[in-house]
Amino acid sequence: MERCGEGPPAGSAERISFLIDKVTAFTHNTISLTSGEEINHERNLYSTLRKEFGLWKKTIEDSGITFSWKLGQEVAHYDRMYRGRELPGFINYKMFERVIKEQIKLLEEPAITKLQQVSEMIKKEMLKLAQESFEGFPNLIKTAKIKIEDICEDKEAAAEAMLRTQIQMEMIVYTQDGRYGKKLGKRKRTEANDAPSQSVFSTFSPNSSISSNSTTLKEMMTHLKSYYNIAGQRLADYLPMVIRYQLLQESSVELQRQMLQSLQNKEEVEDLLKEDCTMGETRTRLQQRHHRLHQARSLLSKF
């Protein structure tokens, strides 16, 4: 009987109030869901999203590991083919910029894929909440689903545009001097303490150009990995922030706005309150059973 509810009242004013209460409860639960609050002590969207954000950070870290191994070959090739009259120890900034841009570009599609995956997860949770909130009212469910689909699609497109813009900005290759200096100094101290057997250069033969110009190449690779670490951290934070802003915060606010706007048309109110015939029949049957049980309890209490 709790699941079936009391059903819409007969009076016109009461019916409008009934619909407002149902829509308000749904939008309130939607905002709670997208804000990270638990719904019915069992549904916490942020616990799922936190795992996805962790996987995105791991994607960046794994790309950085691959980047480190590729750097040796890349830098050695450049040194053989393009180093001109500069002495060892002087870093070519154009080469630095090109390598960084290529590596950051590799993160663009994985970022978009992760955005789409998370968007689909959020949409499914919102649709499930609408199904539960408006059970027995097919027109209400249909209206909510249409709005959720449209809003999620729009917000996903906006989030994708923001993410692609951020990737393009990352390819400008910039950070504050102080931040870069600290990151570079920290990496140099770390590498100075590493054993030679752990160095990436140990994978190359003694006759390679890395062995002959190890000072120049090691310096360049240290700079490249230091900057990639900064850019990677920015992207690791930016994707979750875009998702939280567009797909969670903005989506729930827009859904609330559109659902409340649908109540302004009195003609639509009656259509939205049309109840599933099976729900009404089930409620009537349960009410009759409930009444009979009360009668039986009253008779038994006399013995």
UniProtKB/TrEMBL annotation:
<dbReference type="GO" id="GO:0051607">
    <property type="term" value="P:defense response to virus"/>
</dbReference>
<dbReference type="InterPro" id="IPR003130">
    <property type="entry name" value="GED"/>
</dbReference>
<dbReference type="GO" id="GO:0005525">
    <property type="term" value="F:GTP binding"/>
</dbReference>
<protein>
    <recommendedName>
        <fullName>GED domain-containing protein</fullName>
    </recommendedName>
</protein>
<dbReference type="GO" id="GO:0008017">
    <property type="term" value="F:microtubule binding"/>
</dbReference>
<dbReference type="GO" id="GO:0005634">
    <property type="term" value="C:nucleus"/>
</dbReference>
<dbReference type="Pfam" id="PF02212">
    <property type="entry name" value="GED"/>
</dbReference>
<dbReference type="GO" id="GO:0016185">
    <property type="term" value="P:synaptic vesicle budding from presynaptic endocytic zone membrane"/>
</dbReference>
<dbReference type="GO" id="GO:0031623">
    <property type="term" value="P:receptor internalization"/>
</dbReference>
<dbReference type="GO" id="GO:0005737">
    <property type="term" value="C:cytoplasm"/>
</dbReference>
<dbReference type="InterPro" id="IPR000375">
    <property type="entry name" value="Dynamin_stalk"/>
</dbReference>
<dbReference type="GO" id="GO:0005886">
    <property type="term" value="C:plasma membrane"/>
</dbReference>
<feature type="domain" description="GED">
    <location>
        <begin position="217"/>
        <end position="303"/>
    </location>
</feature>
<dbReference type="GO" id="GO:0005874">
    <property type="term" value="C:microtubule"/>
</dbReference>
<dbReference type="GO" id="GO:0003924">
    <property type="term" value="F:GTPase activity"/>
</dbReference>
<dbReference type="InterPro" id="IPR022812">
    <property type="entry name" value="Dynamin"/>
</dbReference>
<dbReference type="Pfam" id="PF01031">
    <property type="entry name" value="Dynamin_M"/>
</dbReference>
<dbReference type="InterPro" id="IPR020850">
    <property type="entry name" value="GED_dom"/>
</dbReference>
<feature type="region of interest" description="Disordered">
    <location>
        <begin position="185"/>
        <end position="206"/>
    </location>
</feature>
<feature type="compositionally biased region" description="Low complexity">
    <location>
        <begin position="197"/>
        <end position="206"/>
    </location>
</feature>
<dbReference type="GO" id="GO:0098793">
    <property type="term" value="C:presynapse"/>
</dbReference>
